[in-house]
Design goal:
This is Formate dehydrogenase alpha subunit. Residues 214-270 form the 4Fe-4S Mo/W bis-MGD-type domain. One of its GO terms (cellular component) is membrane. By secondary structure, this protein is of the alpha/beta class. The protein folds into four domains: 2-100, Roll (Ubiquitin-like (UB roll)); 276-347 and 545-734, Rossmann fold (3-Layer(aba) Sandwich), CATH 3.40.50; 349-539, Dimethylsulfoxide Reductase, domain 2 (3-Layer(aba) Sandwich), CATH 3.40.228; 780-897, Beta Barrel (Barwin-like endoglucanases). Strand 14 and strand 15 (282-285) form a beta hairpin. Bound molecules: ligand MGD (2 copies) and molybdenum atom (MO).
């Protein structure tokens, strides 16, 4: 610690290396600075934070404290110098720089601090003009003071390096890319630059006019599973802006283009605002009473004729925990069936199964914060700079600060481009790749012997299996040179604190659970789970609340907190609390629901916030299932393709309009709070379920979201200590949290694994080829996944200016294949698989391997899931979205075909 005196007061002790500015601000003394942002390294460019210290005038933001230093923030000479610096800055700015509201301009606040209303220097304002080319980031160059904060934000936090200070002296201003229009630069629209700008030179559409904000609500983002805390600023009952919460534990004042800017869907013209019911084959407007009446009649008839086995409910990973809790209770208590599932089935069900088998619990083993310590990150089948941008940026920063990076991915993703080793394996070959790495770890003694002896099982069986997985042998299976497998294994094996981060490239396969087990083997061999200081294994769970939907028991075999439906003691206890019996027979999974509908055993399907016609594989099969159902109910924000097939469509509130909690990808419960009222007669899924249950004559209890979480806590020991009241008081909580006084467990298994044996279980699972294989007729492999700008079915992001950033889906094709097939950029290409056909625009890129193509599923017109197959993971039923054998042919443009 360092001792300093400030303004003649008693000495204070501050950590060594603190700056003068941090020190005085920590003592509650206001020293303004225009170029300082705690998220960034000090810029020292504005000279407004001048104070007297150590006998001279210093810039407080860049000067470190030294022992015995006397700091004087009130010395007239430093104050005059600071004022002069500020007036000099002002002399170069147009008068409108002082018209920005104080809460949005540090410049204005700083002028207020010094009591400055103008400049005594001759005014020489810039005339450099605006750049409003980007839909979200709006630049007024004349307000730029070249403080460098935006540039630092873009490099030190976001890691995109899109910005620089260009020009000389007086003319220096921020510039994006090579100085052309912002929209054409590599900017990814994270908004960090806007957020840090002290003058309003960088702004955003909703803040360009100066009308005041009426209220700000702190909530959790409803896009991906990272779980960023956002501040939603509302004006005229609409969203003016969303900014990242500065002190949020997960995102630490950062966000991405979707959470930050893609909120325009809330007041889209085609938002559902009233119920619709099918009359004479057409969906027509109806009152809530009419819709509920129809549901109760049709349900009664189906129940009478076919019993509870004829019902199924798909719950929503977009919805809150409380809504999912209520949804599974509704299925079990009101419909009398365990046939309730959620999109985890399409996504990370193999993670839940694989991690439970290996370690005991269905979540990642560590918290995101542990990545800050990792010296080597193994990133497998995940593309976080697009799909989890805030995590992607953190990984990037770790790598820029020296951590080693091994990426296993068939595609050259942004992070693959930065990796020490990119294992560019053939899609579907993960198990072989991970086994090859394990083989090398064992062969070269790069394993934690003590951990394996004391805390793991299954070593002998695994070692025996791994005989056949030497890199030389695996090389042909995964199409990766043996030396690359070897160097990947050595990097991972020699690191001191290895971390494993993975995504759908591991799970969405015919052997996805095996992939997770084989990956978990690597963590176990290195003893990097359940040990102090370890970094563990982290699945990048996808939806905002996919972890929570499963945690809450929206699963056919599990009650809240992963308690088996098949266990009579669990059922009894739950039934006593619910005062409703819990059906004993485990229910149907999503793919089984479709099969049962087609075979006539399932008659009524209730779908909450899931567009199965666009997001499930083999669309033709899904459509047939929907047509086969007698009665389909759907809640959504929009008339999705699925809703178009429904008999009753109910208008739902979005995450910005509701109350509750989400669980993010690293098991944190976080609060969701309404910033807006839902439009028209839309209500949240919580109230919708209550209304329907009421119409069916069932009282679901728990009248409020808070009461629902309390009831869940009383049923599920894993969440016993979690409540709204506590989250409001203490902030996010990791599960397990077994009692109100317990802090939650960011790192699992320090006291033992939760498997039956109490040990981590190695898995000797052999590699098996993918379900859908290429042949002469379908010689190429289609990989599907995500793009930064759009989210899943795109229902929300396509209704925002993100559409300008990415207006259509493309089929990414390697230039060699494109040349062979005679495809140029933008050419229409007809893709056929054994399951269906689609027409897309070709985009040539070396990001894909020859013989492989890539597309996302964000646009309904692109019909990507008409192509994907019905092959599923043999353990969990997760679709094989990552491998589809296809054939490509040049085609007429889709619009010319109609
Ligand atoms: N912008 C955006 N963000 C999103 C979403 C979105 O739609 N858009 N969706 C959210 C959801 S629901 C989810 S689940 C997550 C998904 O997040 P991710 O799992 O990161 O996303 P994907 O793009 O589906 O797949 C990741 C990578 O797996 C690779 N891959 C494919 N096959 C294989 C293989 O056989 N082996 C290996 N090792 N890799 C393979 C792909 O090339 C791809 O780069 O993203 C969430 N975040
Ligand atoms: N080819 C291919 N297909 C895939 C994947 C892939 O990698 N490749 N990934 C799969 C994965 S991982 C996932 S998670 C799924 C995602 O698939 P979905 O869950 O179907 O997609 P989303 O677009 O996230 O949202 C579904 C619907 O929920 C609505 N919605 C949003 N918020 C709410 C709400 O609060 N309440 C209600 N009632 N509705 C709401 C949206 O308007 C949208 O229509 O897609 C899967 N499909
Ligand atoms: Mo997902």
């Amino acid at each position: 610690m360092t001792r300093v005196w400030i303004d003649g007061a008693a000495a204070v002790e501050v950590p060594d290396g603190s700056t003068v500015l941090e020190t005085v601000r920590a003592s509650g003394i206001e020293v303004p600075a225009l170029c300082r942002d705690e998220r960034l390294t000090p810029q020292g460019s504005c000279r407004v934070c001048l104070v007297r210290a150590a006998g001279g005038i210093v810039a407080a933001c860049t000067t470190p404290v030294s022992d015995g230093m006397r700091i004087d923030t009130r010395a007239p000479e430093s104050r005059d110098a600071a004022r002069a610096a500020l007036e000099l800055i002002l002399s170069e700015l147009p008068p409108r720089s002082l018209e920005v509201p104080a809460e949005r301009s540090e410049l204005v606040r700083t002028c207020l601090h010094f009591g400055i209303t103008g400049t005594t220097f001759p005014p020489t304002p810039h005339e450099r003009g605006l750049d409003h080319s980007h839909p979200y980031v709006k630049l007024d160059r004349d307000l730029c003071i070249a403080c460098g904060r935006c540039v630092a934000m873009c490099s030190e936090v976001q890691g995109t390096f899109a910005l620089e200070l260009a020009g000389r002296g007086f003319d220096t201003a921020v510039s994006a890319g090579d100085g052309g229009p912002w929209a054409e630069s590599p900017c990814v629209g994270c908004g960090g630059c806007v957020d840090t700008c002290p003058t309003g030179a960088l702004s955003e559409p909703g803040l360009l006019d100066h009308r005041p904000i009426s209220r700000t609500t702190t909530t959790t983002c409803g896009y991906c599973g990272v779980g960023c805390t956002l501040d939603v600023h509302v004006r005229d009952e609409g969203i003016a802006a969303v900014t990242p919460h500065r002190t949020a534990p997960v995102n630490r004042g950062h966000a991405c283009v979707k959470g930050r800017f893609a909120h325009g869907f809330t007041d889209a013209a085609d938002r559902l605002t009233e119920p619709l019911v099918r009359r004479h084959g057409r969906l027509e407007r109806a009152t809530w009473a009419e819709a509920l009446d129809l549901i109760s009649h049709r349900n009664a008839r189906i129940r009478e004729r076919h019993g509870p086995d004829a019902f199924a409910l798909i719950s929503s990973a977009r919805a809150t925990n409380e809504e999912n809790y209520l949804a599974q209770k509704f299925a079990r208590a009101a419909l009398g069936t365990n046939s309730v599932d959620n999109c985890s089935r399409l996504c990370h069900a193999p993670s839940a199964a694989g991690l439970t088998a290996a370690f005991g619990l269905a979540g990642g083993t560590n918290s995101l914060d542990d990545l800050d310590r990792a010296d080597c990150i193994l990133l497998a089948g995940a593309n976080p700079t697009e799909a989890h941008p805030v995590v992607g940026a953190r990984i990037k920063q770790r790598v820029l600060h020296g951590a080693r990076l091994v990426v296993v991915d068939p595609r050259r993703t942004e992070l693959a481009g930065l990796a020490d080793v990119h294992v560019r394996c053939k899609p579907g070959s993960n198990v072989a790749v991970f086994h090859a790495l394990a083989h090398v770890l064992l062969r070269e003694g790069l394993v934690d012997e003590e951990f394996l002896r004391e805390r793991a099982s299954g070593r002998a069986e695994l070692a025996a299996l791994l005989h056949d997985y030497a890199p030389d042998l695996v090389s042909a299976v995964c199409d990766v040179p043996a030396r690359e497998l070897l160097s990947a294994a050595r990097l991972f094996g020699h690191s001191r604190r290895p971390a494993i981060v993975y995504g759908l490239g591991v799970t969405e396969h015919a052997h996805g659970t095996d992939g997770v087990r084989a990956l978990a083997n690597l963590a176990i061999l290195r003893g990097s789970v359940g040990e102090p200081g370890c970094c563990g294994i982290l699945p990048l769970r996808g939806q905002n609340n996919v972890q929570g939907a499963s945690d809450m028991g929206a699963l056919p075999d599990l009650l809240p907190g992963y308690q088996a439906v098949a266990d009579p003691a669990v059922r009894d206890r739950t039934a006593r609390i619910w005062r409703h019996p819990v059906p004993a027979e485990p229910g149907r999974r999503i793919p089984q629901m479709f099969d049962a509908a087609i075979s006539g055993r399932l008659r009524a399907l209730h779908v909450i916030g899931e567009d199965i016609c666009q997001s499930d594989p083999d669309t033709a099969h899904v459509r047939e299932a929907l047509r086969s159902c007698e009665f389909v109910v759907c809640h959504d924000l929009f008339l999705s393709r699925t809703a178009q097939h429904a008999d009753v469509v109910l208008p739902a509130a979005s995450f910005l309009e509701k109350e509750g909690t989400f669980v993010n990808f690293d098991r944190r419960f976080q609060r969701v709070r309404p910033a807006l009222n839902p439009p028209g007669e839309a209500i949240d899924d919580f109230q919708i379920l209550h209304r329907i249950a009421g119409a069916l004559g069932t009282d679901l209890g728990c009248p409020t979201p808070s009461a629902a979480l309390d009831e869940c806590a009383s049923i599920a020991p894993l969440f016993a200590g979690v409540s709204h009241e506590r989250l409001d008081r203490e902030g996010p909580l990791h599960w397990p949290c077994r009692a109100p006084g317990e802090p939650g467990e960011p790192m699992l298994y320090l006291d033992g694994f939760a498997t039956r044996s109490g040990r981590a279980e190695l898995a000797a699972v052999p590699y098996r080829p993918p379900g859908d294989a290429t042949d002469d007729e379908y010689p190429m492999t289609l990989v599907t996944g995500r793009r930064l700008e759009h989210y899943n079915t795109g229902s929300m992001t396509r209704r925002t200016p993100d559409l300008r950033l990415l207006p259509e889906e493309t089929l990414d094709v390697h230039p060699e294949d494109a040349a062979r097939l005679g495809l140029s950029d933008g050419a229409a290409v007809r893709v056929t698989s054994r399951w269906g056909a689609a027409v897309l625009s070709a985009r040539t890129t070396r990001a894909v391997r020859p013989g492989e193509v890539f597309a996302a599923f964000h646009f309904p017109e692109a019909e990507i899931n008409a192509l994907t197959s019905s092959h599923t993971d043999d353990v969990t039923g997760c679709p094989e979205f990552k491998v589809t054998a296809v054939d490509l042919r040049p085609a007429a443009r889709p619009d010319q075909q109609r």
